[in-house]
Amino acid sequence: MENEKDIPLGPEHPRYDEAQALENMVRVVRKAQGKKNPEDCSYGSLEWQAVEEDYLEDLLRALGGDPGELS
User: Fold this and answer.
1) Cβ proximity of 30 and 58 under 8 Å
2) pLDDT above 70 coverage of the chain, percent
3) pLDDT grade, residue 1 (50/70/90)?
4) Is the model's pTM score more than 0.90?
5) What does the pLDDT read at residue 17?
6) Rg of the chain over all Cα atoms, to the nearest angstrom
7) C-alpha to C-alpha distance for 66 and 10, rounded to whole angstroms
8) Is 34 left (phi over 0), alpha (psi -120 to 50) or beta?
9) Nearest to 55 by CA among 36, 33, 32
């Protein structure tokens, strides 16, 4: 670690609950929109890969980012 005070993002991290809540919110909103979440597909399949990418883009949007800036 760069800083000995850094805590890996896990249950002991002060932002862990916030990260979990954000992830759960994105999953619930996707379901409400009729979208699949990665766990709805066979792991590693082409469908899973497409859904995972779409899910990560939605998560980035929820964090205030723009997936279009990544490419």
Assistant:
1) yes
2) 90
3) very low
4) no
5) 92
6) 15
7) 26
8) left
9) 36
